[in-house]
Structure formats: C-alpha cells, structure tokens
Design brief:
about 375 residues, mainly alpha, hpI Integrase, Chain A, 2 domains, three-stranded antiparallel β-sheet, 15 helices, elongated
C-alpha cells in the first residue's frame, strides 16, 4: 500500500533530517536524494534500509516523467548502481559510528516503560539490523567485465558527422539556435551534460595563461577547471547568437523555451533536458539512424583531439579526469597555449547562414 501524501511528506522530512549531511557535495546530495525519495514513497524509514530492493529498483524499475508527462525507463548501469549503494553505505557507517543524534532517535522508538537496560538492548538490536542491511554482501551487484565494447555502445563521431549533427537543429528558430549552440559548445570543449546545463554567462570567456577559455565551475568530484578553446572558439558565435536572441545577459546560459518557441524561461535547463535535446536529432551512421548521447560528444572531443595530435595528458586536463596522476606530478600544470585543442571541427553552416548570427533577428 502506497503512503498518502501527508504520510509520505512526514516520512521524507524525517528521512532527510537523518540521512542528508550538512553541506553535501553534488554527487552525495544527488544519490542520497534519490534514496530518500524511494524510502519515503515505499513507506520506509531511515532505519529500514532495504538496499536489496533499492538495488533492484535502480537496475530494473526506475523511471522518470518527461516533459509530456509520460513515464520513461531511467534504469542505471551496474557500475552506477554500485556507486549509489556505496554512497548510501558510507553514510550509514558515519551515522552508526559517529552520530549521537541517531542513538537518541532510536531511543525514542523504545517503550518508555521498559527499563534502561531493555531500551539499550532494543537500540543495540537496531544497530545490528541496520549494519546487516547495509552490508555489501546483502545487496551485491554483479559487474560484467567487457574485454571489447561495440562501437554502437560508445559513439565517437568523425568531423563530418559532427557537422551533420550540428546542422540538424537549424539556426532560423530560437529553439534550433539554442540546440545548435549547446551541441557545438559541448563538442568543442568536451564538457559533460550537467556541466553544460550549469554554465553561467560569465563562464564563457575566462582566461588561462592569456588564452580564451571556458570555465567549468564544479565538475565531477567538485573540481573547477578551465578549458582553452583554441581554434574551436567559433562555437561562441552560436552561443553569442543564442544569448542575444534569447535576451540573456547573465545567469545560466541555456534555458528552457516556452510553448510556441518564441520566449525563454527564466530558469535554466538540467542535465536531463540536455539528453532530451540530443534525442531530438538522430543522425545517420553507416546507414542507420542513431541517437547521439551527450557523453558521446565528450568521447568525440577526446578521440578527435587525440587523432589530430593532442597528447593524452592535455586531453585529460581538459576533460577533468583524475587518472594519469603520476604523470601530472612529473610534468606539472600545463600552460593554456599548450592545451589548445587542434582545429578539428569547422562551423557547420555556410557564410551566408553565419551572417544571420551577427545581424538579422530570428523569427
């Protein structure tokens, strides 16, 4: 039986108060929020961590509502589920070993008429049961190791395919201009969907060693980084045109567009919207229509940069990866000029179309 709305709201507040730490980072907040929502919807409290059921939910049942109100599958990969469960287990470990508040809350669940020793026994039993429920052996996730990954699983577009994708939205409408600006900026910088969604106008033109660069305020792991545009700074033509037509002077760069396609929402888009935008523009690859995912643009940036002669360490720094740490300690931080990406993509529109970006308003 599902919880009524008032019951679920009370459950959610109680679960949130216990499980969400003060000032969590982005990943911690996201993973614990998913878990708290699931607990509350299933009438479970924080001291009933059914991680086996939650694992199955993430792997097989999770869904989300799209802009049209339809439910769509949104299950997670085994590796991502492992990361979610590891975060939850770590939080419970901290609560069980360092939180007097948790002990106080559990004592409140005991019978006040019982003796102190009986109450303590009940609290200790809660601790044992919670520890057993969150143990890794209780909800294992089997990872299938792949020696080889099919090309269809991870797309890495060639330059002519990048051009075909970027031409798909067109630049004669507000929506098309936004989507073109978004895709060209992502493929020319290698940023993640969440990073693109969070971009602020003042992030677009920063300096790294005197080089025009894009600032990612908070990448994966809470790291800030700068990405030199180099010869790929042409992507800013599309972004600037979008900002001008949308009358955006500050705040988030990419915004939702109201029904009718003529006006822009005050709020920015999220990572899921970036995914929905990409799904609207399938392209033909080897004779078949393929959906290009936001992370495929990141892989495309990395692969083409490497093919055009950019070394792995420079690519690593631009993408914000944490690997090659030993190499980093030997070579130190690279200058912005040394980290220019090569001129591996060209603007997808002809000179006549590009002239519209600097002059005529878009209908």
């Amino acid at each position: 039986m599902e919880a009524t709305e008032p019951q679920q709201s009370r459950l959610w507040r109680d679960n949130y108060a216990v499980l969400m730490p003060e000032q969590p980072n982005k990943d911690l907040r996201s993973r614990l929020s998913f878990y708290i929502d699931w607990l509350s919807a299933n009438q479970l409290t924080w001291y009933q961590p059914d991680l086996k059921a939650y694992r199955d939910y993430l792997l097989y049942e999770r869904s989300r509502t799209d802009k049209r109100g339809k439910r769509k599958p949104a299950t997670l990969s085994e590796a991502t589920v492992l990361a979610h469960l590891a975060t939850i287990r770590s939080r419970y470990k901290a609560l069980l070993t360092r939180s007097n508040d948790v002990r106080d809350r559990l004592f409140e669940l005991t019978n006040p008429e019982d003796s102190e020793s009986e109450q303590l026994a009940v609290v200790n039993e809660f601790f044992v049961r919670i520890s057993n429920d969150v143990h890794p052996a209780t909800a294992p996730v089997k990872l299938v190791e792949k020696q080889d990954i099919a090309d269809s699983e991870h797309l890495r577009l060639k330059p002519y395919q990048v051009s075909a994708l970027a031409q798909a939205p067109g630049i004669s409408t507000l929506r098309g201009l936004r989507d073109t600006a978004l895709m060209t900026l992502m493929v020319c910088s290698g940023i993640r969907a969440a990073e693109a969604a969070a971009l602020q106008v003042k992030d677009l033109r920063q300096q790294l060693g005197g080089e025009l660069s894009l600032r990612v305020r908070e990448g994966k792991g809470g790291k800030q980084r700068l990405i030199p545009y180099g010869p790929l700074d042409w992507c800013l033509m599309y972004v600037d045109a979008w900002l001008r037509e949308a009358d955006i002077k500050a705040g988030q760069v990419f915004r939702g567009i109201r029904r009718g396609g003529k006006t822009v929402r005050a709020t920015g888009i999220g990572a899921w919207t970036v995914n929905d935008i990409m799904n609207a523009y399938p392209i033909s690859i080897d004779g078949a229509l393929c959906l290009v995912k936001p992370h495929d643009l990141r892989r495309t940036y990395a692969r083409n940069a490497y093919d055009f002669g950019m070394d792995l360490e420079r690519i690593r720094q631009n993408l914000g990866h944490t690997s090659l740490q030993t190499t980093q300690t030997y070579i130190g931080a690279l200058d912005g000029r040394d980290r220019h990406p090569p001129n591996m993509f060209s603007p997808p529109h002809d000179k006549h179309s590009l002239a519209l970006l600097t002059g005529a308003a878009i209908g």
